[in-house]
Structures are given as structure tokens and as C-alpha cells.
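re: ur question from yesterday

yeah so i grabbed the chain u mentioned. its 318 aa long if i counted rite. heres the sequnce exactly as i have it in my notes:
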Amino acid sequence: MGRSGWMVSGTINYWRSVSLGLIFGVLLCGQFKPADPKPDDTPNFSVKVSLVRLLVSVHDASGALLTNLNKEDFKILDSGKPQTISVFERNTSLPLSVAVLIDTSGSTETSLHYEVSSIQHFLSTLLQGGNPQDAFALYSFNWRTNLEADFSRNERRADRALHALHGEGGTSLYDAVYLASDTLVHREGRHVMIVVTDGGDTTSYKQYSDALAAAQRADAVLYPIIVVPINADAGRNTGGEHALVTLSQSTGGKAFYPEGADQLNTAFADILHELRTQYLIGFYPQDVPERVHSYHAVNVQIPRPALRISARSGYYEP
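ran it thru and got these C-alpha cells back, copy pasting raw so excuse formatting
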């Protein structure tokens, strides 16, 4: 065989050896490659880590606030299932975001002047002695809702806005609660809504259920101050008042019925005292169905029937 013939033959034999080696390597690797796990072999974990916070106020039989209870005094049920309390604070100092909603419909014209004065005093007191991060926002509502002053500690801005208010038009109460809830939902700390109104809703696009769901999603405690006419009960919207009371009970708040400026000032003082003495109770839901955007009923209990508890009635999963 000539030289060229040897080179061709050697080249063929070389590539044949390389090919056989590659094939053997692939087979060898395939022999020791770990098998893909079957779907059933992979455990699925679902861990719920969202802390549910409850702001709780407790009154005795005479109506006085109790501030010396312990974690062991409370029992929490989520959808009927007992829960373990993971966070407990007395007189919590978490910062407050307080949205004050003032009714400026035509029916409030005669009471608006002393309502403005009471709100000014309340805002000034709110910013004294509390958390330095406490803030307020001011809304007015008649047939529409206006943000008069966004969340801040600026009393001067609020004073200017309050003195420019006047009464006219209908009442879009549910729209106002819905919109104020939307601004509260992403703020840190505690969320509070105070609604100063003579009751009723006449022009809202939103319904009562929309307002309640929005307040629940915002984790807002709602305090209606229902300004009762001094001269007579004629024209009072008792259906609207009942809706406001239900809103307050469902969010852990309380309704007030002041007659005149003195009682209105007292109502604001009572609200502030309650905010300064709230219990903060938190739990991580366990053994309850997990459904996105679903509503969970929550029940806060104390094994002492003489005591009255104010806490929101449930929460929505994020």
C-alpha cells in the first residue's frame, strides 16, 4: 500500500475510534444519569405567611375602656377555627392614618360651622402626644368626593380647606368611604376613618356592600359621627343611620350621636381616647381554606360576658 493509501486508511480508523468512543461515552453517561423525578415524588408546600392584624377595644359594663388585659384573655376564631395569637400589644403606638370625611350636602349647612371647629380641635389634639408619624387627611363629600388635604401633619392647610367649605347638593356617603379606603390601604400602621354626617346616602354610584368591602380591605376602623338635628327628628334618615352603625360594628369602630357642639367635641375626644388605648392582636391563619380574594369571618372572644369587644368582623385575603 502506498503512503497516500496508508494515510486514508489511518484517518478512517482514527475517526472510527473517535466515533465509537463518543457513542460509548454517551451510553455510559446515560447509564448513570439520575432518573427524572415523577410528579408525585415532588412535595408541594403551601405556607400562608400573611399576618392578620386586629385592632381591638374592650369596654366594661359601664362603658369604660379596659386596658390591662393579657394575651391569654383573648381567643381568636378564623372561619370557626381557633388561632394562635402571634402579636399582642396593649395601647399600641403604631402610627395612625386618620381620614376625616365631612358631609357638605345641603342638609348640613346649619351645623357645618361648629363641625369645622370641632374637627380643627380634634386634628390639633391628634398631633399632640402621639406617634410623630401620625397623619391625617381631610375629605369633603356631597354629590361628589373631594380630597381637601392629603395625608400630612399640616394643620394650616386643613384650616384653610375647612373654612372654605359650604353645604350644597346631595350625599354620596358610600362613594366617599370607598375612595377614602383606597387611599388608606397602602399606608403603614393603623387606618382610621371618621365620618361626620347627618346620615343617609342619596347620590352614590357605589353601594353599601362596596363601601363595607373597601373598608375591610383597607383594614380601616370606621367611626361615624351622626349629627342629630337639635330641633326635631323630622327628616332624619334612620335607614342611613343604621347603615353607618353596621359599618362601624363590622370594622371595629363605634357610632356617635352628638347633639350640638359640646357633644360633638366629646365624641371626638372619646374616639381619640379609644385610639390611644387599642389592643393590637395579630395571627397567622392556620387550618382555614385559602382562597384568593375570599372573605374570612373573624371572631374575637373574651370569656367574661360582662365585657364588650369592638373588633372588625373579618378580612379579605390579598
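noticed a couple things. Confidence is low (pLDDT under 50) at residues 1-47. also The helical segments are 3-32, 112-126, 155-163, 173-184, 208-217, 238-251, 261-276.
anyway ttyl
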